[in-house]
Design goal:
Blueprint (H helix, E strand, L loop, with lengths): L22 E5 L5 E5 L28
Antiparallel strand pairs: 1-2
């Protein structure tokens, strides 16, 4: 991982998704948090809700800080 997004920290409970530009974080009224993969919208090879933590992902791209 490069230092280009050093002010964003990897959340070990979530893994790479916590830093990915394609993640869509969804909070529920009951306090649960889900991390949806935006890549799954266009590419069926990606799981919509991957099991966390994600340690490797072919579609990972660092997001904006």
């Amino acid at each position: 991982m490069s230092n280009e997004h050093a002010d964003r920290l990897l959340d070990p409970r979530v893994g790479l998704c916590s830093l990915c530009r394609f993640v869509k974080k969804q909070d529920t009224k009951r306090g649960a948090v889900f991390y949806r993969c935006g890549r799954a919208d266009d590419d069926a090879s990606f799981m919509k809700y991957p099991p966390l933590p994600v340690g490797e992902c072919a579609g990972f791209e660092a997001g904006e800080a």
